[in-house]
Specification:
- The chain is an alpha/beta fold.
- It folds into 2 domains: 150 residues, Conserved hypothetical protein from pyrococcus furiosus pfu- 392566-001, ParB domain; 119 residues, Arc Repressor Mutant, subunit A (Orthogonal Bundle).
- The strands form 2 sheets. It has a 5-stranded mixed beta sheet, with helices on both faces.
- Helix 6 crosses helix 8 and helix 10 runs parallel beside helix 12.
- 34% of the residues are buried.
- Belongs to the ParB family.
- Keywords: Chromosome partition, DNA-binding.
- InterPro entries: Chromosome_partition/occlusion (IPR050336), HTH_ParB/Spo0J (IPR041468), ParB/RepB/Spo0J (IPR004437), ParB/Sulfiredoxin_sf (IPR036086), ParB_dimer_C (IPR057240), ParB_N (IPR003115).
- Involved in chromosome partition. Localize to both poles of the predivisional cell following completion of DNA replication. Binds to the DNA origin of replication.
- This is ParB/RepB/Spo0J family partition protein.
């Protein structure tokens, strides 16, 4: 379910499978999924004194400050305007998450910056917020997980968030994979994108270049020039791999192409790679011919299975 659908109430909440997805509940607190607290423009209700805890309370919009260096960098202004219009008509149905500001002055936003920005546009003075007692590491973890579950981060933003959790808070790649419900190889492959030139990273960030294209460019002698050629000519990932092999005199041929006689269709293998990168889990396709076959999604934990179910059903935490 998209964030706009959540605010408009376009789809009724569905019961979550028991035993799955407890990782996020442990981070967010079960109070985050209690009955929604409605805030509407011009609401006259006075807020009760706010103290750190698990209850949803009304908090002054002006007392909230965004999280410095939060994972998400790009906000679609048109989508925020649309969400503000929805909030103006129906109120803010889903609480944001905040913590007491480190300097003791007001609150620091942990999750829900898009809703907070839209609420300001809608003219709300107070909004429902879950006030949590969080340290810096837990704050950044929640911000990262929430954005990933909503699929709001581009590949570079996600990779940068992983890098910060490793460098600043001592997380391992295995711990990060478990936190976000993806494979360790997905985390490792994303972080390799940070080795690309800034110009290539910018093309990934604005959606001009896919993650598959970007991965093919890692280590290329002139990655930025090739990236511009990809955008201009609309080259496929396989075409980029072939172009790089040609530039290197075929040095990477064995690493990219299947061995002779393997029987694997390179197009099927390309689809497997694309789905694996998109979902962050292992994907296998068995094609039997005649348009028939089987798609296998591999998971290493119940949290990963829960994530797959949410992606397939459109459900969000």
């Amino acid at each position: 379910m998209s964030e706009n659908e959540k605010e408009t109430g376009a789809s009724a909440p569905r019961k979550r499978p028991s035993g799955l997805g407890r990782g996020l509940n442990a981070l967010f607190g079960d109070a985050a999924v209690e009955a929604p607290v409605l805030a509407t423009p011009g609401a006259a209700a006075k807020a009760a004194p706010v103290a750190a805890g698990d209850s949803v309370q009304h908090v002054s919009v002006g007392s909230i400050r965004p999280l410095p260096n939060q994972p998400r960098r790009h906000f679609d202004e048109a989508a925020i305007v649309e969400l503000a219009d929805s909030i103006s008509a129906r109120g803010l149905l889903q609480p944001i998450i905040v913590r007491q500001a480190p300097d003791g002055q007001g609150y620091q936003l942990v999750a829900g910056e898009r809703r907070w920005r839209a609420a300001q546009r809608a003219g709300l003075h107070q909004i429902p917020a879950l006030v949590r007692d969080l340290d810096d590491a837990a704050t950044y973890e929640i911000a990262l997980v929430e954005n990933i579950q909503r699929q709001d981060l581009n590949a570079i933003e996600e990779a940068g968030a992983y890098r910060r959790l490793i460098d600043d808070f001592g997380h391992s790649q295995e711990a990060l994979a478990k936190l976000v419900g993806k494979s360790r190889s997905h985390v490792a492959n994303l972080m390799r994108l940070l080795d690309l030139p800034q110009g290539v990273q910018a093309l990934v960030s604005d959606g001009s270049l896919s993650m598959g294209h970007a991965r093919a460019l890692i280590g290329a002698d002139d990655a930025e020039a090739i990236a511009r050629k990809v955008v201009k000519e609309g080259l496929s990932v396989r075409a980029v791999e072939a172009l790089i092999r040609a530039d290197r005199g075929g040095g990477r041929k064995a690493a990219v192409e299947p061995a002779a006689g393997s029987g694997r269709d390179p197009d099927i293998m390309a689809v497997e790679r694309h789905l694996s990168e998109l979902l962050g889990i292992g994907v296998a396709i068995q094609y039997a011919g005649g348009g028939k076959g089987a798609l296998t999604l591999k998971f290493a934990s119940l949290d990963q299975l829960d994530m797959i179910c949410q992606r397939l059903s459109g459900e969000s935490i």
